[in-house]
């Protein structure tokens, strides 16, 4: 927790910020490049088509060559492309660069989840995953006011402020990519900070759990990809991430429309509030899930409540305070579920099966990042309001919550069985 989690936590902050900062750039970019609501939805979503295309092969390569080399490669390539996006001259350029950014980042998120299975036994895995994925709301907590400041104050060399936002926020990934090569140990066997007896205990414990998982018959890549359990989790993840990306890509625009002409810095500070609430929920729900050794309802309950809140945004569409309260409720569900959810597949996947299964769940689930924003953008274009599309995303979350409750108990509990 001390030697591994803080570093990959920082990596995830940078990853998620580079993925969603287009939402803040849109506050001025859409007007300059004449981006319509439908084009914005496609622009947001096309990232996930590239992401999906290389997710599984990327994770299999990480398992083969090691996290240190492969994660470093991912970071440097996506940092370069994220910065180049700031030089786009039209919507076509943005489409191409966002698609390429998805190709470059493919494998990072499931790769890190796979990496955590190399280090953390099941009983403590939800907390480890929860703390690592805390980088997601923290990226907004840091990135929202930072992006607002850049938009309001930086327009060097005659370039628009949204361009500098994308350029500057892509640079940390390049620096951290080189740092990863030197700082990230591949597995406990090569960790210099573990005493011999610590290393022997941890390696032995993880080997026992891997044997248990192999007895489920999902130790190979093909077996994992063919099992219905993996596809059920994929459908659940798809529904939840439909709501997450609706929140991530439309929250700044909603707050901006209700903030009465406030500066972008103010908008960033307001968007930060729900993410701070979501960050706290990630820690508390993950710890409680590990302590109770229960996964299903730690996912289903907060996700269902968040889905209802997302569908209800249109009820108080003229009130900034009411909208912020609902965004806080949504944040609890879309962030709090991660730790308990990602502890479930580790109970029956191991080795190449874990590499392939985790990548499939993450890649197919993240297609919601294409379908959701594009659907919301299209509905916004035709209805003149984002609220019908956001209601559809909320319904998807409620359906996902119902599916979670149908998981067999033996799949959803991580260690007791």
Descriptive notes:
The chain has a single domain (5-412), classed as Growth Hormone, Chain: A (Up-down Bundle), CATH 1.20.1250. It is mainly alpha-helical and 417 residues long. It is built from 20 helices and no strands. The chain is globular and about 60 Å long.
Summarize the structure.
The protein has 20 helices and no strands. The chain has 417 residues and is mostly helical.
Q: Per DSSP, what share of the residues sits in E-state strands of 2 or more residues?
A: under 5%
| Series of secondary-structure elements, N-terminal to C-terminal | HHHHHHHHHHHHHHHHHHHH
Q: What's the quaternary structure here?
A: single chain
The top-level CATH class is Mainly Alpha
What would you give as the CATH superfamily? MFS general substrate transporter like domains
CATH architect. name: Up-down Bundle
Specify the helix fraction band. over 70%
The tally of strands reads 0
How many structural domains? 1
Largest sheet: number of strands, sense, barrel closure: none
Distance between the termini: 25 Å
Which structural class should the secondary elements be placed in? mainly alpha
Flag low-confidence runs.
412-417
SS field, number of helical segments: 20
Q: Which term fits the overall shape?
A: globular
Radius of gyration: 20 Å
């Amino acid at each position: 927790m001390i030697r591994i989690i803080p570093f990959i936590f920082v990596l995830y902050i940078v990853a998620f910020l580079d993925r969603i900062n287009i939402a803040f750039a849109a506050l001025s970019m859409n007007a300059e490049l004449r981006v319509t609501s439908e084009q914005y939805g496609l622009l947001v979503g096309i990232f996930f088509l590239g992401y999906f295309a290389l997710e599984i092969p990327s994770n299999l390569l990480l398992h083969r060559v090691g996290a240190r080399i492969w994660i470093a490669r991912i970071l440097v390539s996506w940092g370069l492309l994220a910065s180049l996006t700031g030089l786009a001259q039209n919507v076509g350029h943005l489409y191409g660069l966002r698609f390429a950014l998805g190709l470059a980042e493919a494998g990072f998120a499931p790769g890190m989840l796979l990496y955590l299975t190399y280090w953390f036994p099941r009983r403590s895995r939800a907390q480890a995953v929860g703390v690592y994925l805390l980088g997601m709301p923290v990226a907004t907590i840091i990135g929202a006011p930072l992006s607002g400041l850049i938009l309001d104050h930086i327009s060097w060399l005659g370039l628009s402020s949204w361009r500098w936002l994308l350029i500057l926020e892509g640079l940390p990934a390049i620096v951290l990519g080189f740092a990863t090569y030197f700082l990230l140990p591949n597995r406990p066997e090569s960790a210099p900070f573990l005493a011999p007896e610590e290393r022997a205990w941890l390696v032995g414990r993880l080997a026992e759990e891997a044997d248990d998982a192999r007895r489920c018959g999902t130790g190979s890549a093909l077996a994992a990809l063919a099992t219905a359990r993996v596809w059920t989790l994929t459908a659940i993840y798809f529904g939840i991430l439909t709501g997450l990306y609706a929140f991530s890509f439309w929250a700044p625009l909603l707050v901006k429309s209700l903030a009465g002409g406030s500066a972008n810095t103010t908008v960033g500070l307001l968007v930060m509030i729900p993410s701070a609430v979501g960050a706290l929920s990630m820690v508390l729900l993950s710890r409680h899930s590990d302590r109770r050794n229960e996964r299903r309802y730690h996912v289903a309950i907060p996700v269902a409540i968040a889905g209802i809140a997302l569908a209800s945004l249109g009820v108080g569409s003229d009130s900034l305070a009411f909208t912020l309260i609902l965004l806080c409720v949504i944040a609890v569900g879309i962030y709090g579920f991660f730790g308990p959810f990602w502890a479930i597949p580790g109970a029956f996947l191991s080795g190449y099966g874990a590499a392939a299964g985790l990548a499939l769940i993450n890649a197919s689930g993240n297609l919601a990042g294409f379908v959701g924003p594009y659907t919301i953008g299209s509905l916004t274009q035709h209805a003149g309001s984002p609220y019908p599309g956001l209601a559809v995303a909320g319904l998807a979350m409620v359906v996902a919550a119902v599916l979670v409750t149908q998981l067999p108990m033996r799949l959803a509990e991580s260690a007791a069985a």
